[in-house]
Amino acid sequence: MLWLGVAVGIGIVLSVLGFLLRKPSANNNPNMEQQSPMERAIEEALSDAARLLETGQTWDAEQRMVSLVEQVSQEAGTTSREYALALFNQAMLFLWMDDNTRAIPLLRTACEIAEADESMTADLLTFQENLGVALSQNGVHSEAVELLQESLNRREKFFGRNHSGYACGLTSCAEALTRAGKPDEALPLIEEAIKIDQQAQNSSVIEEIALKSIILQAQNEEDIFPNWSDLPAKLQSEIPEVVHRMSRTHQPNMVLGLYQKLRPLYASSQPRDLQKLKEIDVAISNLARQVENHPARIAAFQRIMENIGEHHPESVNTLLGMAMAYTDAGQTSSADDAYESALRVSSQNGPPASQAQVQRNYAIHLAETARIEPAKQMHQEAIGNARKSGNEELLGRTLCAYGIFLQHAGQTEGVVEFLEESLLALPKSHPDALSAESHLVALREGDSCQCSETNIDSYLDFLKKLVLDRAPEGLVDQITYDEADLESPVSVSVTREPTEEESQQLFNAIQNSLTEIRMSSSRAFYTE
Fold first, then answer.
1. 3-state secondary structure labels for all residues of 171-219
2. Each residue of 55-68: pLDDT tens digit?
3. Using an 8 Å Cβ cutoff, are 282 and 300 in contact?
4. Among 511, 517, 438, 504, which residue's Cα sits nearest to residue 475?
5. Which ranges carry the Anaphase-promoting complex subunit domain (predicted)?
6. Which helix (H) or strand (E) holds 478?
7. pTM for the whole structure
8. Mind listing the domains of the chain with CATH numbers?
9. pLDDT tens digits for 422-453?
10. What is the DSSP letter of 31?
């Protein structure tokens, strides 16, 4: 039996990354004004992969790009522009999946191909920018800044200092410097970029203004939008969404402070933009949850409810979020009130699915506060409404919650059936499917479920099931986890010496499975 160390960590499942992506375009690349059939095929492959990714088919999305890269390598060769573009598009898919680890080597190779061909200068600039941003987001700050500064010099020669192509490089370099803890060096760069794009009337100026606010917040400046009143109304309305998109890879405490300074600007405007205020409060509540700032989180939910009222389609989810915020703050009575309000509103205005979601969450809260019989009744009502809704995923989640509740309460009769039915209803990579599977394993082996502990064995059992679907047939024997091994905590035992192609497929299978679990977890609502 052979063992392979795999440099991937369980921690990747919990990471949340954003990404600012820039692609080669006909606007700055004369080579792409007339696309060849192969170049069109490369773009179509990425579009196909994106559609698959949107529906949760991460492995199929990956395989679409793997096949494309292999086809291009055979037809155009591995030193061709087409091959570099194929690698770049494959890297784009990984970046959309927040998998910088696999994107970075692809971008490096694309850069090497472009550097050897003078006609690919525009492509090289795009490849370098995305590589620099990926390195920056992965914490490789020194190399990222050095690469982006080198690329900026190339942009000056290629575009000139007054071109938006140069401003684009200034922006990427400024953001990398900010992540590296050097906002003072970043500020003059972003101010130059804003000046260039304002004169050019380039739409990218909105991203640059948003980044400037992040830089000023990193400097602890009080006024992070010094020229707010001079901004056109259209730009003002777009700022919250752009800040949200760009701020995901910065420190949440810093970004929370930014939003708290941004909100009064909208609150004092006339007429008040209630939708923007709601979006800002949603962002504040999410960031406050990350940093455990309970007062800020609760206040944000209270403002949202004042804003939208009980008859709004989002009122039930808002009340559920408020209830969870009170629970996390240890305010049980207030949490009860919020759940009761959510229950009343969903019963009056909501479909069975909405009622089932409220009842499921409320039941969990009741059980956690030692009100067992009311919790049991609430769980049963949740399952009934979930069945009426026809929503299979919701049914799986309510069944899973009830099965785990019964197991914790020592009422094991029927638990296996509830958990097994939940697994039939849930996608394999759903976080609740992991919970159901781990509790089933404990039941069958006569062990406690160890919910209060890190259940690595159950996690790895779940991971193995995903990997086996994607790895070469008959290759994987066992997967183990060693907390002491910081570089390669996940190891795989194989039944035979793998070929180079099999090793790559196995690595991709593990990375993809981790990514699918993480992406599924980030999509799930109220999984606690």
1. HHHHHHHHHCCCHHHHHHHHHHHHHHHHHHCCCCHHHHHHHHHHHHHHC
2. 878 889 999 999 99
3. yes
4. 504
5. 79-119
6. strand 476-481
7. 0.77
8. 1-138 (1.25.40.10), 351-481 (1.25.40.10)
9. 999 998 778 788 788 888 878 887 766 666 44
10. G
